What does this fold into?
Amino acid sequence: MAEQPEERSSDEMVTVERFRDMVQAEMAKGRLDSAGIRSFLAGENAGLLYGNGLDGVLLQVSAAEEADARAILND
It folds into this structure.
């Protein structure tokens, strides 16, 4: 039996990319913002305090826009 994809709430935030470099994270966020996709950088302040040794900076979008965001970032 095939496994069903996980259903997500449209307002749930999902991580579409992880960055160690804040400049690259900001550039990717800018690409999504200019395409009309609202995005959020999670962990940006932790990186400033603790360096890049943590999980890095997470670029997040709403679950409803995940596919479009991934397509833009992979282009």
In short: The radius of gyration is 14 Å. The CA atoms of residues 20 and 51 lie 9 Å apart. The chain has a mean pLDDT of 82. The longest helix spans residues 22-34.
